[in-house]
Design goal:
The chain is mostly helical. It is built from 9 helices and no strands. The longest helix is centred in the middle third of the chain and has 24 residues. The N and C termini lie far apart (about 65 Å).
């Protein structure tokens, strides 16, 4: 009889599984990757994988949820190092430019997941919506601190830059969106704030 698996080994196996699945799903797409490929990449037997996640959909949701925590954590840490509120809003676009320039950048994992599974998986759709809502809420904190009347203009610039960079493979949309955000901030400071909502 094999020795029982320790909690630490279970934790390590789960991390290895999520790492392997995230890399495969992001690089090639969720539907293009079979569970046998996840098994090979993670080094775990399928029986063990299905003990962690009863279905592939559950694994996808866990991958997106963990990625969301890391992604928003890194973004927030970058932006909140900047002291001046208006510059914080612009720092959002600086962080996006860095992300877009990373090797292997393939656009937004949540937009990609929505494109593949949003119409067929309520669980994936809920996770995508949760991520986008949390991103919008974080932008709202920064725009409010900068005195803008609402987050929508900045949020749409950020989302548009993300989608465009994912399609083109070019970080330039972040720079163009930053320039547009600077115009919104300047218009608000000069008394034309209604255009920034």
């Amino acid at each position: 009889m094999p020795a029982p698996i320790s909690e630490e080994q279970s934790r390590q196996d789960r991390v290895a599984l999520l790492d392997a699945a995230e890399e495969l799903f992001y690089a090639r797409g969720i539907q293009a990757v079979g569970m046998d490929e996840v098994r090979t990449a993670s080094g775990l037997p399928l029986k063990r994988i299905y003990r962690f996640f009863a279905a592939k959909e559950d694994l996808v949701v866990a991958v997106l949820r963990r990625r969301d925590e890391r992604w928003r954590g890194a973004l927030t840490a970058h932006v909140e190092r900047v002291a001046e509120p208006g510059e914080r809003v612009l720092a959002l676009f600086d962080w996006l430019a860095g992300w877009f320039g990373q090797p292997g950048f393939r656009g937004c994992a949540w937009v990609n997941a929505h494109g593949e599974l949003g119409s067929s998986s309520e669980a994936v759709l809920a996770e995508v919506r949760s991520h986008k809502r949390a991103f919008h809420d974080r932008i709202a904190v920064w725009t409010r601190a900068a005195g803008l009347p609402g987050p929508d203009g900045i949020a749409l610039l950020a989302e548009g830059a993300i989608v465009t960079a994912g399609i083109t493979g070019d970080p330039a949309p972040a720079h163009r969106a930053r320039e547009a955000a600077a115009v919104l901030l300047a218009a608000h400071r000069d008394g034309g704030g209604a255009t920034a909502a």
